[in-house]
């Protein structure tokens, strides 16, 4: 699978026919389950991504809308309305606590930058 990044197609992931072990999935799941990362391909051919406080909406034509979440209301709006998550206030607070512990403000990721 590839994504159009900065004017070129970049590999997002590759499927290969090698034997996989459960521990490979456990480690990957633990990381994504304990970090402020989310991605959602949408029916309108856009892809919404979140990494730390950065939110990107990628369009099929390669255009990208970028924004930075600055407060609790921004996170609530993106997670509830953008990703369609039915979060209680307690769940949102738990997410923000993880963000506070593990997120790195201003950091970038090649696929979310």
Give an overview of the whole structure.
- By secondary structure, the protein is α+β, with helices and mostly antiparallel strands.
- The chain has one domain: Arylamine N-acetyltransferase fold, CATH 3.30.2140.
- It is 33% helix and 25% strand.
- The protein is built from 3 helices and 6 strands.
- The strands form 2 sheets. Strands 3-4-5-6 form a 4-stranded antiparallel beta sheet, with no helix packed on it. A two-stranded antiparallel sheet has the order 1-2.
- Strand 1 and strand 2 form a beta hairpin.
- The protein is globular, with a radius of gyration of 15 Å.
- The two termini are 18 Å apart.
- The mean pLDDT is 81.
Mean pLDDT: 81
Distance from first to last alpha carbon: 18 Å
How many strands? 6
CATH class: Alpha Beta
Count helical runs. 3
CATH topology call: Arylamine N-acetyltransferase fold
What is the string of helix and strand elements?
EEHEEEEHH
Give the topology.
Blueprint: E1 2-5, E2 8-11, H1 22-33, E3 37-41, E4 47-51, E5 54-58, E6 64-68, H2 72-82, H3 89-102
Antiparallel strand pairs: 1-2, 3-4, 4-5, 5-6
Which terms would index this structure?
two-stranded antiparallel sheet; 25% strand; 4-stranded antiparallel β-sheet; alpha+beta; 113 residues; 3 helices; globular; Arylamine N-acetyltransferase fold; 6 strands
């Amino acid at each position: 699978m590839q994504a159009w990044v900065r004017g070129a197609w970049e590999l997002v992931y590759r499927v290969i026919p090698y034997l996989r072990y459960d521990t490979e999935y456990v480690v990957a799941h633990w990381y994504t389950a304990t970090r402020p990362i989310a991605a959602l391909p949408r029916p309108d051919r856009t892809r919404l991504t979140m990494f730390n406080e950065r939110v990107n909406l990628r369009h099929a034509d390669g255009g990208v809308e970028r924004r930075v979440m600055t407060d609790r209301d921004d996170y609530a709006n993106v997670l509830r309305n953008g990703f369609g998550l039915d979060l209680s206030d307690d769940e949102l607070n738990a997410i923000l606590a993880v963000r506070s512990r593990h997120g790195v403000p201003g950091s970038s990721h090649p696929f979310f930058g």
